[in-house]
Amino acid sequence: SSSSPPPSSSLDQLQRIKTRVVNVIAQQNKAQTDVPPQCCSVAESKKGCAITKWVDYSFKYGLGYKLSNGTVGVLFNDNTKMILAPDGKHVEFTDRESSGNRMSGMTIDSFPEDMKKKMTLLKYFRDYMLENLQDGPDEISQKMLQYTVGLPVLNKWLRTQHAIVFRLNVGVVQVNFFDHTKLIINGPRDTVTYIDKDSITKTYFLSDIAKSNHPSIETLSSRIAYASDIVEHMLTKSQKS
Q1: Which residue among 62, 126, 149, 228 is least packed, with the fewest CB closer than 10 Å?
Q2: Per-residue b/e over 106-141, b at no fewer than 16 CB within 10 Å?
Q3: CA–CA dist 177, 167 (Å, integer)
């Protein structure tokens, strides 16, 4: 079964995140310094989508990852994407952009012959991450109970001097810093999640961050500014290609 990509292109989503974050930073620079922002509820944190595990095998095949909803995926070096639903059965394959991002559905046991190698790799990444990598914080994890078509997928990723950056097709930009802190900006939900070195996880609405310049969020604010620069870089790169 095939379906077309969602109407809002990932570049539009990226542009919206960029505009929003620049606006938040500008407001924050003029905001009061005596009131810290209020954190969101854990229920709100769990509504987002984030990468909780990843393994870079791009020198050969691609990047494997697990999402906070229990989905496992691979972004292959040829820019095709394969993703396994949390039910461990349904699989979605998305063709590369130049082929129109066509998405086809199959199951882990029943798939076209030409998908055999990619399916084998998907299973390999799934097993490797299950056995060797720790899951992300409970505060952001919420397993999807029922399969629905059109699973979130990783669209692009890049390494910078300080971090590895992931861009999901659901308006999420995630920055995993090499000092073991993480920042997740969720455009549609207008939230930012910060996970510190001790895995303490806090989610805020960006509108609340914009109103506070409190010293307690100094690190978070500098990370948001860094993410803004990275998003700018991603946009420039995409517009050139």
Answers
A1: 149
A2: bebeebeeebeebbebbeebbeebeeeeeebbebbb
A3: 14
List beta partners, residue 173. 167, 185
Low-confidence ranges of the chain (pLDDT < 70): 1-8, 98-99, 241
CB 66 within 8 A of CB 129: yes
pLDDT of residue 6: 47
pLDDT score of 241: 64
**What three-state secondary structure class fits 43?**
helix
**CA separation for the pair 76, 73 (Å, rounded):** 9
Backbone angles phi, psi at 224, to 5 degrees: -65, -40
For residue 109 the two structure tokens come to 């046991």
pLDDT in tens, 229-238: 999 999 998 8
Helix (H, G, I), strand (E, B) or coil at 231: helix
Instruction: Count CA within 13 A, CB hemisphere, residue 198.
Output: 2
Helix axes 10-29, 218-240, angle to 10 degrees: 140
Residues 81-119: tens digit of each pLDDT? 999 999 999 999 999 876 677 899 999 999 999 999 999
DSSP, res 161: S
**Residue 60 identity (one-letter amino acid):** K
For residues 59 and 47, give the distance between their C-alpha atoms in angstroms, rounded to a whole number. Answer: 33
Q: How far is CA 215 from CA 34, 35, 209, 211, in A?
A: 8, 9, 12, 13
Q: Angle at CA 173, nearest 5°, toward 126 and 123?
A: 10
pTM over 0.90: yes
Do the Cβ atoms of 208 and 37 come closer than 8 Å?
Answer: yes
